[in-house]
Amino acid sequence: MKLSLIVPCYNEQEALPIFYKEVTAVMAQMDCAYELLLIDDGSRDGTLALMKSLAREDEHVVWLSFSRNFGKEAAMYAGFCNATGDYVAVMDADMQDPPSLLPRMVEILADGEYDSVAARRTDRSGEPPVRSWFSRQFYRLINRLSDAEIVSGARDFRLMRRDMADAIVRMGEYNRFSKGIFGWVGFKTYWLPYENVERVAGETKWSFWKLFKYAVDGIINFSQAPLSIASWFGIGMTAFSFFMLCFIVLRRLIFGDPVAGWASTICVIVFIGGLQMFFLGIIGQYLAKTYVESKHRPHYIVSDTNGEDIKKIG
Ligand code: UDP
Ligand code: MG
């Protein structure tokens, strides 16, 4: 049994040595064959040099270096495309996905009942309350809108069987939202709860605004509901305005209405104009995704690696 550990790294020169030490210690205890797939996502600090020096000392280390920063999703995809293990795991380099959970995860898979084990934070301590609130609302919303099961507090930290990893590679969409993809491919997942851990070193790459955009992208990638909402809203407003029209015509016939209500007319026009723009925007978002998708661009480009048989463009 061989284990592949996929680790996307972007400017992780502080955290990576700590992670490497810990993961190596854990793997030494487990006594199974493994590879450590370090993906350098176009880092601008000493991350790549560090990977190279680790690889010189340790034959488990396989590193791939991207030609620029393609984002964590692309880095994970590159990992999946190049992982050779029977079990494949994805984890962050910042120790927020504790390597100490790995033995337990492997044990659960080895029992044979489950196809994947996913880590799930039981709390969100150390996170600003506003962010936690938004994040909880996001999970509520996306689960109502989408048919892929997306669990709140789930991280991308997961161990899975080869079959599931192959299915993920086949999900070749350009706009990737892993939490949705993992849910979409299905398979039996065991949720392993653990307490939230803060990043050991370095800084998170997520600002509030970036997270917000990530959430919107997630919804657009895994749900068509916003488009139907636009249609339903349109139908509702048409029905409403029809009744208003009947009311006004009758009032005119019965009371003979003098000209009035200029301000309210303008308000209604602006309101409807705004709604139309808003829904046009939603359609635009989907169209933009479709446009990017239709170009079939590669997800990542590897400029350098120490591995053999590496899929360099994928
Ligand atoms: N990461 C990456 N490319 C990016 C941004 C992040 O490969 O463009 C990696 C990063 O090095 C880390 C993981 O993705 O291993 C998670 O990043 P981070 O800790 O910043 O996110 P958070 O844990 O706050 O969600
Ligand atoms: Mg992190």
What is this entry, summarized?
With 314 residues, the protein is an alpha/beta fold.
How are the SSEs placed, and which strands pair?
Elements: E1 2-9, H1 15-30, E2 33-40, H2 47-57, E3 61-66, H3 72-82, E4 87-90, H4 102-111, E5 116-121, H5 129-145, E6 154-161, H6 162-170, H7 178-185, E7 189-194, H8 208-222, H9 225-255, H10 262-294, E8 302-305
The chain binds uridine-5'-diphosphate and magnesium ion (MG).
Keywords:
eight-stranded mixed sheet, alpha/beta, binds magnesium ion, 16% strand, single chain, 2 domains, Spore Coat Polysaccharide Biosynthesis Protein SpsA, Chain A, binds uridine-5'-diphosphate
Q: How would you describe the overall organization of this protein?
A:
The chain has 314 residues and is of the alpha/beta class. It has helices spanning 15-30, 47-57, 72-82, 102-111, 129-145, 162-170, 178-185, 208-222, 225-255, 262-294, and strands at residues 2-9, 33-40, 61-66, 87-90, 116-121, 154-161, 189-194, 302-305. It has an 8-stranded mixed beta sheet, with helices on both faces. Helix 2 links the parallel strand 2 (33-40) and strand 3 (61-66). It starts with a strand and ends in a 9-residue tail after the last strand. The structure holds uridine-5'-diphosphate (UDP) and magnesium ion. Magnesium ion binds at residues 92, 94, 96, 199, 204. Magnesium ion is lined by residues 92, 94, 96, 199, 204.
